Amino acid sequence: MKKAKNSERLGFKAYFGTTAMSLNEAMTTSLMTSFFLMYLTDYSGIGALAASLGTGLLVFARVFDVINDPIEGWIMDRAKPGKYGKYKPFILVSILMMTIGVAALFFVPSGITGSPAVVCIWVILGYLLYDIGNSFFAPNLMYRAMTLDPDARGRLLIGPRLITMVAGMVLSALMVIVNGVNAGINNMHTAFGITVLLLVGVTAVVSLGGTAMVKEKYQAEPDEDDPVKLTDYFAMLKENDAMRCRMLSQLLTGFIWSFLFAAVMYYAKWAYCADLTTGAVDNDKFGMMSMVAGMMSFLPLIIGTAIAAPLMKLFKSPEKFHRLLLLVQCVSCGLMFVLQITGLLARSYVIYFACVGLCAFAIGVDFMPDGVMNIECMDYDIYKNGKDRSALNNALSRLINKAQNALSAAAIGILLTAVGYIVDSATDTYIGELSNIPSMLNGFILIMGLLPCVLGVVGYLIFRKYPINDKVRAEMKEKLGQ
Q1: Cα atoms in the 13 Å half-sphere on the side-chain side of 423
Q2: What distances in angstroms separate CA 277 from CA 29, 274, 290, 431, one per listed residue?
Q3: Residues 420, 438: Cα–Cα separation, whole Å
Q4: Contacts of 8 (CB under 8 A, 6+ apart)
Q5: Mind giving me the DSSP string for 21-40?
Q6: What does the pLDDT average to over 60-84?
Q7: Does position 273 have pLDDT exceeding 90, yes or no?
């Protein structure tokens, strides 16, 4: 008897396209998360203004996002499916905006560095261009429109996640590449800008090609009698208890990733690569150390992502698996804080990178169950309320994520401002008060160790109320398939 064809099955083109589509966003986001503040403070050439400008900008941008992200989600939910789909045009525009914005942020012209007002305008405009583009990049909406099969959706998440990790590993060698470019021009500021410009330019071309390969299958036409309104943002929070539970937990647990990676390079640089008596940094050693830091951050993420699917099958339900992985992340961050207090962490980079690697591994594995639950919260809203507000749902999730990344970087900026952090952009030598460096290192571990541990435990307790189980999932799939 001939086996019935699975209409929800996706081919190689779909998986390859979504993976390539995500490359530019992965590269630009990794640059902004890991290196933006360090570029401003150490290599932009704007001096003591850098830490306060970076901190103020990130806080301002999140206030802006509170207004901007719901509006962008509303625009996408109200859009009508066209020749190229409903969400693809937004993805294409977002790639171009993120590329131009990041290129501007990492190549502040030397000619304007002497004018604080012009520098502020340049940086603010570049950041807003990146930020608005990033908000329009909504791949989860594409995945939901491509198939109703939860397993296929889970597999769609793997490729983009892995390409994000690959981008992170490439960036782990960023300082090595910058040092190589600098050897020919003898200017770290310009070398940094040239390197970033090439990276975002190449990835943009790849992502535009990947997006063109993706096709949307399931589209909900906007309801002309009851269209999605901006006020639905608040109605959704009230009515969708699954999304509300997940968002409240994510509001806290998302800081584990963002706090960890906001400080990981700074701690490695000043704990293991600097002469604390002179403030001089061994750039070759820091280049290698940053590569090791990147490898120990992203390689465990890749391994965790690769083995997430079979592990999740063992636990059968994504919510139970997610809770276990949250506990692993909390333990690894808490251990890092304890080791810093005892003085062991600053004496051994092996111990430091082992703690970072363990946390990264748990985060990598957790991406699949958490991603599946993010998409099913969109389904749950349609299942419970009969209204497609997926873009608003996605906008809220991304708003929380961006706020966490910004607040993490802002916390680092506040710490650096408090210790009077100043680095010569040409020589990479610390020219602030050297006696403040030990306190600065303790502050880094407070941010990337103790705070994520406490927030993660509270988020774990909140998530125990998540309402979707296997029975509800089966009912949702049957209803949405009709």
Answers
A1: 27
A2: 35, 9, 22, 11
A3: 13
A4: 147, 148, 149, 152
A5: HTHHHHHHHHHHHHTHHHII
A6: 77
A7: no
Single-letter amino acid code for the residue at 39: Y
* Total count of residues recorded for the chain: 482
Question: Do residues 53 and 40 lie in contact, with contact meaning Cβ atoms separated by under 8 Å?
Answer: yes
Q: What is the DSSP letter of 151?
A: H
DSSP alpha helix (H) spans, 148-240: 150-172, 174-185, 188-213, 232-239
Give the Cα separation of 306 and 304 in Å (integer): 5
| Exposed / middle / buried, residue 111 (Cβ in 10 Å: 0-12, 13-18, 19+) | exposed
Candidates 452, 449, 404; CA nearest to 33 is: 404
CA distances from 166 to 20, 290, 333, 452 (A): 12, 15, 24, 25
Amino acid at 15: Y
Rounded to 10 degrees, the C-alpha dihedral 271/277/278/280 comes to: -20
Structure tokens at 351: 């111990």
87 phi and psi angles, rounded to 5 deg: -105, -20
Report pLDDT digits (tens) over 160-215: 877 877 787 777 778 888 888 888 888 888 888 899 999 999 999 999 999 988 88
3-state SS assignment for residue 274: strand
Q: Which residue has the tokens 């809770």?
A: 323
Contacts of 132 (CB under 8 A, 6+ apart): 68, 72, 97
Radius of gyration, alpha carbons of the chain: 22
Give Cα 160 to chain centroid, integer Å. 12
* Nearest alpha carbon to residue 29 among 413, 469, 431, 398: 398
Distance CA 208, CA 89 (A): 11
Q: Are 32 and 61 in contact (CB under 8 A)?
A: no
Model pTM? 0.65
Alpha-helical segments (H) within 316-348: 318-342
Spatial separation of the C-alpha atoms in residues 170 and 23, rounded to whole Å: 12
